[in-house]
Every structure is written in C-alpha cells, then in structure tokens.
Amino acid sequence: MKRALLSFLLLLAFAAAAHAVTPSEQLADPKLEARARAISGELRCLVCQNESIDDSNADLAHDLRVLLRQRLVAGDSDKQAVQYIVDRYGQFVLLRPPVEPATYALWFGPPALLVLAALCTVLYLRRRSASGAGEPPPLSEAERRRLGEILREGEG
Amino acid sequence: MRRALYLLPMLLFLALAGYFTLALTSGRDPSVLPSALIDKPAPTFALAGLDGAPGLDRAALAGQVTLVNFFASWCVPCRVEQPLLLRLARDKAVSLYGIAYKDKPEDTEGYLKELGDPYRRIGLDESGEVGIDFGVYGVPETYVIDKSGRIRLRHVGPLTAEDVEQKILPLLQELGRS
Question: Which residue from A49, A64, A88 is facing B31, i.e. has the nearest CB?
Fold first, then answer.
C-alpha cells in the first residue's frame, strides 16, 4: 500500500515537470538548457496568448523555443535573448509586464487600493469607539431602585 | 460633505462599469496584436524563390510602396483573401509581394496554380525565421511598407473588401504621394 502511494506521488511529481519541450529541442549543456527553460516560462505564446512558450504545443512556440536556444548558444545574456524576442513581438510577449510609467497603475493600483481600504477601516473603527459606544452612561437614581427591586424578587 | 463620501463607492463603480462597457463595445479584437515594428525599418531578409523564379529580398522592395503578404497553402483563411489579393494586384496595380510561411515549395506551387498568383515575387520562408523577424504569429498577415523601407501597417488575418477600401488603399495612396 505504502509503495503504491509512493509510486503514485512520484508519478504526480513527474507529471508536473511535463512541458511541451521535446527532447530534440533541448540543449546538451544543462546550464544553458536550464536558462532557456527559465526564460521560456516567462514568454507568452502569441498563438494561445495565455500560455508560456514553455507550455504551449503551438508551432510558433516551438520555433521561438528553438530560436531562444540558438540565441543562448550564440552567447546572448538572458536579457539580450529576451530583448531579441521583444523587439519582434512587442512587450506583450512578456508574461510579467515590466515596471515602468505605463504600467504603474497595474503594479501599484491594487496595493494602493488595499492601503486605502485599510485606512478607511481604521478611521471608521476609531470614530466608532470615540463616539462613546464602548462605555454606557451610568444608571439614574430611578433605574438603580428598579434594579434593586428586580434583584430582590429573584432572591425571594 | 459626509453624504458625498458615501456616494464615492457608487461613483467608482460607475466609472469602472463605463470603462468596461467602452472596452467591450469598441469592437476591438483582443487576439489581434499591435505590431512592435510599426514605423520601424522592415527586417532584412533574403529568401529563395520557387523553381525558376527569382526569390525575394529586402532590396527588391526598396524605393516603392509595397504590400507584403505572408501566406501558406495549409492556411484556410488565406484562401478566403486570395481573390481579393488577385483583384488588388490586377485592378489597383498594387505592388504585392508574397512570403510563403512554413510551407513546402511544391505545396505553394500547387496552391498558386489552383487559386491564381497575385504576387510580383515570392520568397519561400520554410523555416519561418523571416516570419519571426517580422513578428508574424499566424497567417495570413499583411504588411504595408513605405518607400524608405519602414513598416507602416500590419493587418492580422484575412483582408476583407472593407479593410482594403478603408485602410489599405487610402494608406497606399497617401504613402505613394509623399
């Protein structure tokens, strides 16, 4: 039973590693291949648009994977290789958009909204406790007498 | 003042909803990408031609306003636009050049024999490398290149009569004058 479970888990582990990259595309140098894999995971396949070229089976994704590896073998740095593809396909190929003035709203909008919401919450809670909702006003003389009567009734 | 603050979420919502409505009804197809090469020089390339015909390189496009059409025999939408391309080349005297994208030469030949050949010259891009240099991500794609060799327009997908009348021909005319 244990062994079956273990082999099942192993199977899952390998399933996660299965990508569209075929053995014929892979480079002999494991270091270069690792860099190529890392970069291609960050590049959008333009045919399917929400898959990286590392995951996509599209023809163009295959061509771009091969091209990327050619650039790396030719001695490009990671940055140069990415730029090579951005020059041709535009920034849309980057799955992670760069931080620059045009994308400030995209990167900083959500955290700014979160901070704004937190600020509003703090202000609201503070105002609520400041308005005296915490301490009820003391009992009047008549109320104290009535309370005494009720307590005595309970005892009797 | 207090009241106005309570209305703020509502206003924010209306602004967002308005923006989404505009984006949804604009008719823009999000799968059509803008080209990264607009107003930039077309990439240099030199491609072999079909048997007995000259190939196509960037020098062949120089000094004139051209239409460069990426097509393939395996591409169904290309068949749709082919009659339009034939008419453009014949009636409007447009300098139309073809690049056969990831296609076998014999298949390209058969395709042109079947549907007609509107191109002045054809380059064979069997590996698709020139396509990548142009930023092609699906055939057909059509590029307008001006006299100085700059890409002025990219059209993704088959051309329609409307595209030609409203986009391509006016641009060709404008570029031809200057």
Answer: A49
